[in-house]
Amino acid sequence: MKKSINPNGVRKPFGNYSHGLYVPPGAGLLVTSGQLGIGADEVIPRSVKGQAELCFEAIGKILAEADMGFEDVIRINGYVTMREDFPAYMDVRDRFISDPLPVSTLLIVSGFTRAEFLVEVEVTAAKVP
């Protein structure tokens, strides 16, 4: 069973995430590449919310292919190009996470491979037998 680690003496997390997450031995591990906000139809939404939804939908399909779900996600790394996009990204992210809360990092970056990309998300998942 995965276990959240949020020790006394460390400031409470700023959002819906754990400071640490213990994964017991024998768990299956899945690591994704960063997913960008582009659909299979090559359409790129203009909003960070629309792009983040596509990122997490793609991650959901990758997880399913590995017989996993968002409940197995232990780490989320998110990247946005503008600090102002933080709330929209977090609103989408929070719809996909579940207990125990994964660890999470969000970085503001100068850009991605194409100027129209506003967000990229990668996850690590562990399925406990």
TrEMBL record:
InterPro entries, sorted: RutC-like_sf, YjgF/YER057c/UK114
Pfam families noted in UniProt: Ribonuc_L-PSP
Protein name: Putative endoribonuclease L-PSP
Species annotation: Martelella mediterranea DSM 17316
Taxonomic lineage: Bacteria, Pseudomonadati, Pseudomonadota, Alphaproteobacteria, Hyphomicrobiales
